[in-house]
Design brief:
Elements: H1 16-22, E1 52-55, E2 58-62, E3 71-77, E4 85-91, E5 95-98, E6 104-111, E7 114-122, H2 123-128, E8 132-135, H3 141-155, E9 168-172, E10 175-182, E11 187-191, E12 199-206, E13 222-225, E14 228-230, E15 233-235, E16 241-244, E17 247-249, E18 252-253, E19 265-267, E20 270-276, E21 282-286, E22 289-294, E23 299-303, E24 319-322, E25 325-329, E26 333-337, E27 340-346, E28 348-352, E29 364-368, E30 372-375, H4 382-390, E31 394-397, E32 401-404, E33 408-410, E34 416-427, E35 436-438, E36 445-452, E37 461-463, E38 477-486, E39 494-502, E40 507-516, E41 528-536, E42 541-549, E43 556-558, E44 563-571, E45 583-584, E46 589-590, E47 595-597, E48 603-613, E49 625-626, E50 632-642, E51 658-661, E52 664-671, E53 674-675
Parallel strand pairs: 8-9, 9-11, 10-12, 11-13, 12-14, 12-15, 13-16, 14-17, 15-18, 16-19, 17-20, 18-20, 19-21, 20-22, 21-23, 23-24, 30-31, 31-34, 32-34, 33-35, 34-36, 35-37, 36-38, 37-39, 38-40, 39-41, 40-42, 41-43, 42-44, 43-47, 44-48, 47-49, 48-50
Antiparallel strand pairs: 1-2, 2-5, 3-4, 3-6, 6-7, 25-28, 26-27, 27-29, 45-46, 50-52, 51-52, 52-53
Length: 676
Amino acid sequence: MMKSKVKKWFGFACAAVFAVALCCPLLACADKDKNEDGDNGDVQVPVHETEVTPVEGGVEITLPDDGEAEYYDIYKGNSAYGEFTLVEQDYEGESYVGDDLWAYYRVDFKANGNVTGSRVYSYEKELFGENTMIFSPEDDPEEVQAVIDEIYEGQRGASSGQFTEDRYALLFEEGSYDVTVYEGYYTSVAGLGLAPTDTKLGGFHVYADLESNNNATHNFWRTVENVTVTGNVQWAVSQATSMRRTMVRGNLTLHQYGGWSSGGFLADSRVTGTVNSGSQQQWISRNDEWNTWSGSNFNMVYVGVEGAIPSGDWPSRRVTDIESTPRVREKPFLVQTEDGYGVFVPDLLENSSGISWDEDGSEGEIVPLDDFYLARADRDDASTINAALAAGKHLILTPGVYMIDEPIEVTKAGTIVLGMGLATLRISDENTDTLMRVSDVDGVILSGILFDAGKHSQTLLEVGEEGASARHSSDPICLSDLFFRVGGHSDEPTYAHTSVVINSSDVIGDNFWVWRADHSHGVGWDTNVTVNGVEVNGDYVTFYGLFVEHYHEYQTIWNGEYGETYFYQSEIPYDPPTQEAYMSHDGTVNGWASYKIADDVQNHRAYGLGIYSCPRQPVKVANAIEAPANPGIYIEHAVTVRLSGADCLESVLNGEGDRIASNMMAINIYSGGTFS
């Protein structure tokens, strides 16, 4: 258990194990893992030859042998964007040994007395990759702002950013920063302290830059966590985003001047002023605190929230308020401590409300960095990642797009897999299976990953083997900020039968967007082809924030017992070409329900479901939700909305639904076959 402040540490021991590995040629060093019986195995952790390697008392930098540099001027600084002091002039060696593992070294290349180039080297950059920017409060604010602005310019717009291959993590050490962060696509922003109040930003904004009319409906794929923002924040986002563990000292606005927006997820955060949801179609807030919340639209769900929310009875006010969160583990996050870098893993919480942290941090533990394999997309693939996992390492996926030609196998209990900068696993043409398979073991944690389908994917993520029956109630499997995509990034056809299959029991899902692309590249009824979005076969599976859209048949099919969903958002596919091509139940029922609870399921609970339509052809869907009439089935607050196009959805649930507007129907409660 731990709850304490963190400090920057400039010693050597924090990365000792990893450092030894880095000094060896690829696969030359063995890191013995222990199996579940405690015996040492023979699996080797992959290691890589590098330009920056730890040595006793510091770091060794291999200087470039490019045939042009005759000698070097070497400067040392505490950070990438602060002041550097000259430590060696006209240095002629092939490598340089610096006396500080965590320092930054700027090397100016010189020939004929002139500087011909310059580069900054650091062990941190070697660990986390070139697209992880680590800022210090000692940095020049103008230089930090220039870096932030340059990244944003490349990630901000529909043409330049929405389907770019670039990924970025912006990490801020403890301290205060006189900068404003503008966040675009495929970017994560995070503080490195144990508490959000340890890292203070002058401003933070997400703008609706896609097109005219302040449209934020495509503002996907970005996250912010573990920071304090001084002043008002605009967070105009839609799906595949998260704001977690954030303090806003002001107001939080979730739209841009009333333009369209379709979010979103807010968790473990405190807003001292008002949250203004405005045009947001739907939203889930979990374990937050604020002064007031202004606005509601189609489906607003609050779980374990402390603060005023919009009043009014369903369906005149489409608000669902759940007093406490039954069970959740907050997402792990990277920290700097007195012992070096580590990953903080919060404790599992039961029946909680409000935020999990105070100014001293949270209850939980720090897993040291040398227990992790840090993968980089420029040198790692499924084989190196699997070797590290098999040797007992946890995994950090640093920012990048990883081509995966065989399934990543997470087999050991308690494994942590943490993505940075919307790290993307993309299935290659050779892989006709899945991107990641998790064994039916206790306590696995996955977070912060985008899963991309390929030409022949069967699934994108499988949790537990088919027929899994073990319970994990004391140490559940926790899945946070996981996003799945079929199509959109390439003109090539894509296929995934079912994007997410959960066979294990006692799984907690916390913010999923499962998306068959409806726009951009490689999109069409016969081009990005699917069957189902999510299939839940395990028992006691809980979701907080499940977004599933545009799949060919059921968006979500639930076969397991004692499942619970807190907030569901779905759009049926826009592009069924004809009614004949879009029929369920052996061709006898119009369309496919979005949320299907299997007929033999006896116990299931769901709160706050919103299902929308905007078909391009005049097709019908008989039921947005299909559920059996068994006594343990309970659904509270469900709404359907026709966003545009023909009137498509014929009922909310099992042929029932009260029309509350020309484009809306709703039910209040469905319990054991009875509506009320």
